[in-house]
């Protein structure tokens, strides 16, 4: 991972050097052209239009149009500067609304360009469309992570029933949800067999956020009681190392940690296929068999998708 990280920083440095060189050359060109342009206007153009009323009118109209364009550009630049400042305060570095193949490809490339890939934290509904489905953006990228922590909606809990109730066919949506969760568990089991440190916990409340934490970045999308979460915008917030309390990253990370450390959420045991419930001290209270009936209820159908997952 170190050579790849070094190459990323090297290319980033080259990009900064090239941008500064272009700006410097542009400034020099403008500086050298100003005297020539001023001399042409004073000694060539103005004597020609000074005694021609029509040419003088056209000159004034052209100059007024240039001023209007210039002031509009200044206003646009100022507005963008204000928006950039607000985005910087919020630590927003990326946002997208569409969920077509090009947007998904761009998201996968962003995952691959991340310089640090030791651990990842995921909070989703079923997780199937996030890391288990053949076309999911994290399916191949997770091979590069060592520690994987995942929180999914308990397919046998009240939150799953409430979530499925928002769909046109709640029974089919619930069956699809359970099948997708089972598919996600199977995918995580394969990662665990490959030597990854995988931990899975289940929450019972209706979901609100879909969160993916990769190092110092978090992908955020709302998934509260929605039949079509793909239409919700997705945002990427970054941690600011010099000001860690700034922006939305610490808020979402705190939300995830509080949910992860909440003793009410059961932990999945891969070896026994059970859910383990503990008290606040971490002592095991009871175990429940993970729902098995979902495996044969329905086939996973993209047209019956329950979420962006």
Topology overview:
Elements: H1 2-49, H2 53-90, E1 92-96, H3 101-113, E2 119-123, H4 128-132, E3 147-153, H5 158-164, H6 170-193, E4 197-203, E5 209-214, E6 217-222, E7 234-238, H7 249-261, E8 266-269, E9 274-278, E10 284-289
Parallel strand pairs: 2-3, 3-4
Antiparallel strand pairs: 1-7, 2-5, 4-8, 5-6, 6-7, 8-9, 9-10
Describe the structure in your own words.
The longest helix has 48 residues, at 2-49. A ten-stranded mixed beta sheet has the order 1-7-6-5-2-3-4-8-9-10, with helices on both faces. The two termini are 29 Å apart. Helix 5 crosses helix 6 (170-193). Helices cover 48% and strands 18% of the residues. The chain has 309 residues and is an alpha+beta fold. It contains seven helices and ten strands.
Shape: elongated
Helix content: 40-55%
**C-alpha Rg (nearest Å):** 28 Å
Would you tell me the structural class of the helices and strands?
alpha+beta
Q: What percentage of the residues does DSSP assign to strands (E)?
A: 15-25%
Distance between the termini: 29 Å
Mean pLDDT: 79
> How many β strands by DSSP?
10
Order of helices and strands: HHEHEHEHHEEEEHEEE
Query: Uncertain runs with pLDDT below 50, 5 residues or more?
Result: 1-6, 293-298
Main beta sheet strand tally, sense and closure: 10 strands, mixed
Number of helices: 7
- Placed side by side, the strands forming the largest sheet appear as 1-7-6-5-2-3-4-8-9-10
